[in-house]
Amino acid sequence: MRTITAQPVEITEGVSVLNGDLRMPPHARGLIIFAHGSGSSRFSTRNREVAAFLDAQGFATLLLDLLTPEEEAIDVHTRQYRFDIERLGPRVSAAADWARREPELRELPLGCFGASTGAAAALIAAAERPGMIAAVVSRGGRPDLAGDDVLPRVKAPTLLIVGGHDEPVIEMNRDAMRQMTAHVELEIVPGATHLFEEPGTLEQVERLAAGWFARYLEPAAGPSPMPL
User: Fold this and answer.
1) Cβ-contact 196, 139 below 8 angstroms
2) What is the pLDDT of residue 39?
3) Which whole number is the average pLDDT over 120-129?
4) What is each CA distance from 37 to 21, 58, 120, 132, 188, in whole angstroms?
5) Which of 35, 80, 147, 154 could form a cystine bridge with 118, CB 3.0-4.6 A?
6) 69: number of Cβ within 10 Å
7) Cα–Cα distance between 135 and 154 in angstroms, integer?
8) What is the pTM of this model?
9) Which CATH architecture has domain 5-216?
Protein backbone atom coordinates (compact mmCIF):
# COMPACT_ATOMS: atom_id res chain seq x y z
CA MET A 1 0.00 0.00 0.00
CA ARG A 2 1.55 3.30 -1.10
CA THR A 3 1.41 6.21 1.33
CA ILE A 4 0.52 9.32 -0.66
CA THR A 5 1.50 12.69 0.80
CA ALA A 6 -0.54 15.73 -0.20
CA GLN A 7 0.19 19.41 0.15
CA PRO A 8 -1.15 22.71 -1.21
CA VAL A 9 1.28 24.72 -3.35
CA GLU A 10 1.37 28.17 -4.91
CA ILE A 11 2.94 28.81 -8.31
CA THR A 12 3.74 32.29 -9.59
CA GLU A 13 3.45 33.23 -13.26
CA GLY A 14 4.19 36.89 -13.81
CA VAL A 15 2.03 38.76 -11.30
CA SER A 16 -0.44 35.88 -10.99
CA VAL A 17 -0.43 33.37 -8.14
CA LEU A 18 -2.00 29.98 -8.93
CA ASN A 19 -3.17 27.42 -6.40
CA GLY A 20 -2.38 23.73 -6.76
CA ASP A 21 -2.54 20.40 -4.97
CA LEU A 22 0.60 18.26 -5.11
CA ARG A 23 0.36 14.55 -4.32
CA MET A 24 3.53 12.49 -3.93
CA PRO A 25 3.82 8.70 -3.70
CA PRO A 26 7.09 7.29 -2.37
CA HIS A 27 9.81 6.93 -5.01
CA ALA A 28 7.72 8.74 -7.64
CA ARG A 29 8.51 7.74 -11.22
CA GLY A 30 7.38 11.04 -12.74
CA LEU A 31 5.23 14.13 -12.21
CA ILE A 32 1.98 14.71 -14.11
CA ILE A 33 0.74 18.31 -14.35
CA PHE A 34 -3.03 18.54 -14.84
CA ALA A 35 -4.45 21.30 -17.04
CA HIS A 36 -8.18 21.53 -16.46
CA GLY A 37 -10.84 22.39 -18.99
CA SER A 38 -13.14 25.36 -19.33
CA GLY A 39 -15.00 26.25 -16.16
CA SER A 40 -13.14 23.63 -14.14
CA SER A 41 -10.47 23.73 -11.44
CA ARG A 42 -8.20 21.53 -9.36
CA PHE A 43 -11.34 20.25 -7.65
CA SER A 44 -12.61 18.61 -10.86
CA THR A 45 -14.05 15.26 -9.77
CA ARG A 46 -13.02 13.43 -12.95
CA ASN A 47 -9.49 14.77 -12.99
CA ARG A 48 -9.04 13.95 -9.30
CA GLU A 49 -10.14 10.39 -10.03
CA VAL A 50 -7.58 10.11 -12.83
CA ALA A 51 -4.91 11.66 -10.59
CA ALA A 52 -5.65 9.19 -7.80
CA PHE A 53 -5.22 6.30 -10.25
CA LEU A 54 -1.91 7.72 -11.46
CA ASP A 55 -0.77 8.22 -7.85
CA ALA A 56 -1.45 4.53 -7.22
CA GLN A 57 0.72 3.71 -10.25
CA GLY A 58 3.62 5.62 -8.70
CA PHE A 59 3.26 9.01 -10.39
CA ALA A 60 3.24 12.30 -8.52
CA THR A 61 0.42 14.61 -9.64
CA LEU A 62 -0.08 18.37 -9.60
CA LEU A 63 -3.67 19.55 -9.97
CA LEU A 64 -3.40 23.22 -10.79
CA ASP A 65 -5.93 26.04 -11.00
CA LEU A 66 -5.20 27.78 -14.29
CA LEU A 67 -7.17 30.84 -13.17
CA THR A 68 -6.45 32.95 -10.11
CA PRO A 69 -9.26 33.23 -7.52
CA GLU A 70 -10.00 36.75 -8.80
CA GLU A 71 -10.18 35.61 -12.42
CA GLU A 72 -12.34 32.64 -11.49
CA ALA A 73 -14.82 34.90 -9.66
CA ILE A 74 -15.19 36.96 -12.85
CA ASP A 75 -15.22 33.96 -15.18
CA VAL A 76 -18.13 32.31 -13.35
CA HIS A 77 -20.33 35.14 -14.58
CA THR A 78 -18.69 36.25 -17.82
CA ARG A 79 -16.74 33.17 -19.08
CA GLN A 80 -14.14 35.60 -20.38
CA TYR A 81 -11.07 33.66 -19.25
CA ARG A 82 -11.87 29.97 -19.69
CA PHE A 83 -11.14 30.02 -23.43
CA ASP A 84 -8.18 32.38 -23.14
CA ILE A 85 -5.67 29.72 -24.20
CA GLU A 86 -2.89 32.28 -24.66
CA ARG A 87 -3.25 33.08 -20.96
CA LEU A 88 -3.53 29.46 -19.79
CA GLY A 89 -0.71 27.82 -21.78
CA PRO A 90 2.13 29.84 -20.21
CA ARG A 91 0.76 28.97 -16.79
CA VAL A 92 1.27 25.27 -17.46
CA SER A 93 4.81 26.17 -18.56
CA ALA A 94 5.26 28.06 -15.29
CA ALA A 95 4.21 24.94 -13.38
CA ALA A 96 6.88 22.95 -15.23
CA ASP A 97 9.48 25.62 -14.39
CA TRP A 98 8.39 25.52 -10.74
CA ALA A 99 8.76 21.74 -10.63
CA ARG A 100 12.31 22.03 -11.96
CA ARG A 101 13.19 24.34 -9.05
CA GLU A 102 11.74 22.10 -6.32
CA PRO A 103 14.35 19.73 -4.81
CA GLU A 104 11.96 16.78 -4.47
CA LEU A 105 10.62 17.19 -8.01
CA ARG A 106 13.47 18.49 -10.15
CA GLU A 107 14.73 15.05 -11.22
CA LEU A 108 11.31 13.64 -12.11
CA PRO A 109 10.30 13.25 -15.76
CA LEU A 110 7.38 15.59 -16.53
CA GLY A 111 4.11 14.85 -18.28
CA CYS A 112 0.91 16.83 -18.84
CA PHE A 113 -2.68 15.65 -18.68
CA GLY A 114 -5.09 18.09 -20.33
CA ALA A 115 -8.86 17.92 -20.30
CA SER A 116 -11.12 19.74 -22.76
CA THR A 117 -9.63 23.20 -23.41
CA GLY A 118 -6.84 22.36 -20.95
CA ALA A 119 -5.42 20.03 -23.59
CA ALA A 120 -4.57 23.06 -25.72
CA ALA A 121 -2.83 24.69 -22.75
CA ALA A 122 -0.84 21.50 -22.15
CA LEU A 123 0.26 21.37 -25.79
CA ILE A 124 1.33 25.02 -25.71
CA ALA A 125 3.46 24.23 -22.66
CA ALA A 126 4.92 21.18 -24.41
CA ALA A 127 5.87 23.37 -27.39
CA GLU A 128 7.36 26.03 -25.10
CA ARG A 129 9.26 23.52 -22.93
CA PRO A 130 10.35 20.73 -25.30
CA GLY A 131 13.28 19.79 -23.06
CA MET A 132 11.07 19.45 -19.99
CA ILE A 133 7.71 17.97 -20.91
CA ALA A 134 8.21 14.41 -22.12
CA ALA A 135 4.61 13.26 -22.74
CA VAL A 136 1.09 14.64 -23.10
CA VAL A 137 -2.30 12.97 -22.64
CA SER A 138 -5.54 14.69 -23.67
CA ARG A 139 -9.00 13.66 -22.40
CA GLY A 140 -11.88 14.91 -24.50
CA GLY A 141 -9.50 17.64 -25.51
CA ARG A 142 -9.48 20.53 -27.94
CA PRO A 143 -5.90 20.34 -29.25
CA ASP A 144 -6.97 22.45 -32.22
CA LEU A 145 -7.23 25.46 -29.91
CA ALA A 146 -3.45 25.38 -29.37
CA GLY A 147 -3.11 26.95 -32.81
CA ASP A 148 -1.62 26.04 -36.17
CA ASP A 149 1.72 27.59 -35.21
CA VAL A 150 1.98 25.54 -31.99
CA LEU A 151 1.02 22.00 -32.97
CA PRO A 152 3.95 21.34 -35.35
CA ARG A 153 6.38 22.46 -32.61
CA VAL A 154 5.23 19.89 -30.04
CA LYS A 155 7.94 17.26 -29.61
CA ALA A 156 6.40 15.25 -26.76
CA PRO A 157 4.61 11.99 -27.65
CA THR A 158 0.91 12.78 -27.38
CA LEU A 159 -2.10 10.55 -26.71
CA LEU A 160 -5.52 11.92 -27.65
CA ILE A 161 -8.42 10.16 -25.89
CA VAL A 162 -11.92 10.96 -27.15
CA GLY A 163 -15.33 9.47 -26.44
CA GLY A 164 -16.91 7.45 -29.26
CA HIS A 165 -20.10 9.55 -29.05
CA ASP A 166 -18.21 12.85 -29.10
CA GLU A 167 -18.18 13.06 -32.90
CA PRO A 168 -17.33 16.75 -33.41
CA VAL A 169 -14.37 16.50 -31.02
CA ILE A 170 -13.14 13.32 -32.75
CA GLU A 171 -12.85 15.27 -35.99
CA MET A 172 -11.14 18.20 -34.24
CA ASN A 173 -8.58 15.78 -32.82
CA ARG A 174 -8.00 14.18 -36.21
CA ASP A 175 -7.45 17.61 -37.74
CA ALA A 176 -4.93 18.44 -34.99
CA MET A 177 -3.11 15.14 -35.56
CA ARG A 178 -2.50 16.04 -39.20
CA GLN A 179 -0.62 19.15 -38.09
CA MET A 180 1.54 17.47 -35.47
CA THR A 181 5.01 16.15 -36.21
CA ALA A 182 5.46 14.43 -32.82
CA HIS A 183 4.41 10.83 -32.30
CA VAL A 184 0.65 11.07 -31.73
CA GLU A 185 -2.06 8.44 -31.29
CA LEU A 186 -5.84 8.69 -31.08
CA GLU A 187 -7.79 6.38 -28.77
CA ILE A 188 -11.57 6.39 -29.09
CA VAL A 189 -13.41 5.05 -26.05
CA PRO A 190 -16.61 3.28 -27.23
CA GLY A 191 -19.85 4.50 -25.70
CA ALA A 192 -18.31 7.57 -24.05
CA THR A 193 -19.56 11.12 -24.42
CA HIS A 194 -17.51 14.27 -23.91
CA LEU A 195 -17.29 14.07 -20.10
CA PHE A 196 -16.78 10.29 -19.88
CA GLU A 197 -19.66 9.97 -17.41
CA GLU A 198 -20.77 6.55 -18.67
CA PRO A 199 -19.93 3.54 -16.43
CA GLY A 200 -16.43 2.23 -17.02
CA THR A 201 -15.36 4.90 -19.51
CA LEU A 202 -13.28 7.01 -17.13
CA GLU A 203 -11.53 3.85 -15.97
CA GLN A 204 -10.47 3.27 -19.57
CA VAL A 205 -9.04 6.81 -19.65
CA GLU A 206 -7.09 6.07 -16.47
CA ARG A 207 -5.57 2.90 -17.87
CA LEU A 208 -4.69 4.50 -21.19
CA ALA A 209 -3.08 7.53 -19.51
CA ALA A 210 -1.11 5.42 -17.04
CA GLY A 211 0.18 3.23 -19.85
CA TRP A 212 1.25 6.23 -21.93
CA PHE A 213 3.09 7.90 -19.06
CA ALA A 214 4.72 4.62 -18.03
CA ARG A 215 5.95 4.27 -21.60
CA TYR A 216 7.39 7.76 -22.01
CA LEU A 217 8.23 9.04 -18.52
CA GLU A 218 10.68 6.40 -17.43
CA PRO A 219 13.83 8.14 -16.17
CA ALA A 220 16.56 8.30 -18.75
CA ALA A 221 19.20 5.62 -18.32
CA GLY A 222 22.63 6.72 -17.22
CA PRO A 223 25.67 6.50 -19.50
CA SER A 224 26.79 3.04 -20.49
CA PRO A 225 29.96 1.84 -18.78
CA MET A 226 33.16 2.08 -20.77
CA PRO A 227 34.29 -1.28 -22.20
CA LEU A 228 37.25 -2.86 -20.43
Assistant:
1) yes
2) 57
3) 96
4) 16, 24, 9, 22, 19
5) 35
6) 11
7) 10
8) 0.90
9) 3-Layer(aba) Sandwich (3.40)
